[in-house]
Amino acid sequence: MLTYILRRLGIGILLAVLVTFITFWMLSFSFDGIAGGILGPASSPERIDALQEEMGLNRPILLQYGEWLFHAVQGDFGISYFTSEPVVSAVLDRLSVTLSIVLVALLLSVIVSVVLGVLAASRAGVIDKTAQGIALLGLIFPNLLIAIVLVLVLSLNLKLLPATGFVPFAEDPLGWVRSITIPVIVLVINGISNMMAQVRGTMVGELQSDYIRTLRSRGIPTGAIVYKHALRNAAAPALIVLSLEFIQMFGGALIIENVFALPGFGSFAFNSALQGDIPVIMGVTVFSTLLVVSVNLVTDLINGWLNPKARIY
Amino acid sequence: MAASGALLLSGCGAGSAPSKGGSSGSAEDLELVLSVFAAPRSLDPAQLDGGTQAYVWGAIYDTLLFRDEDGEFQPNAAESWEVSDDALTITFKIRKGMTFSNGEPVDAAAVKSNMDRNAATPGQEQEKFVNVSSVEAPDDHTVVVNFSAPDPAFLYNMAVDGGVISDPSTVDAERTPTDPVGSGPYVLNTDKTVNGSTYVLERRDDYWNVDAYPFETIEVKVLADRTAGLNALMSGQVDFASVQANELNQVESSGRFNVVEVQGTSTAYLNLADRDGTKIPALGDVRVRRAINYAFDREGIVEKLMFGSGVPAVQPFSLKSDGYNPDLEGAYTYDPEKARELLAEAGYADGFTVTMPSTVASQSFEPTITQSLGDIGITVEWVPVPAQNTTAAFANGDYPMYWFTMGSNPTPRDVDNFLNSATQNPFGWSSPELEALLAEADVTIDEDERAGVYQELSAYMVDQALFAPVFYINTNNVTAEDVKFIGDGTNNFTSIRNFVPAG
Lengths: 313, 503
What we know:
The structure holds two protein chains of two kinds. By secondary structure, chain A is mostly helical. Chain A has helices at 2-27, 31-39, 45-54, 61-72, 87-123, 125-140, 143-157, 173-207, 210-217, 222-251, 253-260, 265-275, 278-306.
């Protein structure tokens, strides 16, 4: 298994190199604008050219990329062109904000989806209809709309929760909970609509399969059948949806971060892309690639543990 | 210090403002929370920029001069200044007894060191020192700046980002971009500050001019999304936001806010940059450029597109600046018929096609521009340009004409921005008449006299239709009940001194 993990990590790193190269190559089309952006609209063309030269942006792409890679593998991702912040700490600061929202949202989504999904599949009837209704609502209404409505009701009218901003957990745990409540609700509504449908669907399938009938005929209690046997087998597809959901929440964080003015990863990546802040964009690319690779790896490992047939190592 | 109404100033207008942070000590601890759209860039003195990021660096740094609400220069870190008769030397007397926040003294050597560094460091400030030939510090409190050519914009620059004084002993240290040492009224509280998101500034009680800064704590929150900014304002999380005209109703109907509309904080225009006709021969003909000016229904556009929050414009210079020439109003009315005649006269009866860059700034106006120009026979094709390429695309001369929004400035800076900058004059256009007017302005030291020259210059720019200005954009400054925004746009510097406790 260790070799498997190492191999997967190795592939992940190769993937990161490939992705960063493609990113760098695509960025290179706008290298022209960077010196101008730093110097501001009032600067003269000569000065822009001089800075361009000084920054080495005129050199061959491969050389520049190689130089970046050489520093990056040593953990040196450089400093932002525009704020002069060290890239690594800037990225980690933003990542912690986004993760503290996404992970909480994910955990809640899992709990709600599994409970509702299993109930819907095993009990059917009103519970099933209600659960499906909730899932449908989450799919119909976009994140942004739900977010705006919740702010309007909970923050502006009822004044229960802050409308914007983020309070770090370490600074004020209660403030942290208040600051992430609405963003988390928004993400959860979307998360459960996907995940619960998946749990319900596979559970329905499992509960109709032959081995369940056999278990029943041997007099095993329904609870044990549902939670110990059926759910374990239904978990694998749900887990894959979960990992996809994580990546999607992470990618979609930009919208939530903008609406709530959270200093997170999505808005950070967006703004640096707009400015052409190469070191930051590259750092963001590396971290998000590695994050996706690790999430997929962990998912595969858990899947193998749940279902030995699915082991690929 | 004004103590009345102080209790409410910590932003609890809504009664339950959560997470306002800050220490709530005595009732006199006034706190001001501002919202801005974009995070400040580097706080390194050579990289500073205007706009709302000045709320942060303007609190940390002192500037040599200060422009008051009437647009008059006032002493600041410099007690006095004197311009020589040939305008080639400016002598500043530096105030005695000032200290940086780390205790180092502010002296002439520090000022000289800042100027030398700005001139030598690639960044936003470098261009502003291009005419400076040398800086001398003959004694501890005298700084003499020598110029290779007269630079009327220099004093204005000394009242804004160009005139900041940082501590020379730490300016090259790693902390400077995020936590610089200045001699200004506030210091950054790095524990409570989150880069790119929240900046908490605490007043220095040993600051020489502490009375001019009534707020003990200033917090600047970056709320990039307009809706987020409005929500934060409405829920009492911030005391100030700039609000778009179409959202004003919501703010005004609540009755809990003060609204100050400042006219003409920027000018929106088509830059008819290719005035020699290098790329599009038609633009080399003044009749064509005038025709474009006749194509816009400026009143209609302000009314419908800007929800009335603007002023029709025919000249680039800002409304409140010296160079604004009131006689030019009505120079170009909305007259498509006349525009078509002018085009026909110039030999373009069938019109022509022009390619314009589609940028973040132009997007919402593109249909209007396409239609207005289409009506007189000019076909516009829009090419999307990514945000980070916009400056370069303009400066490279890729586009013969383009839509631009320029922040308002005092005329000498406006002149540099509109006529000399890479983004606004990419084709390097000039004319003997223009050169003569600019040269005359440069050597005219008397401000009133120079204003006359600038107005003549404005008339020339309008007559030659170098640009097709469409409107000035107004800014709606909305503050909580207990804060007042002062300023009418005469001094267009975004300073924390624009905010005072109400009552």
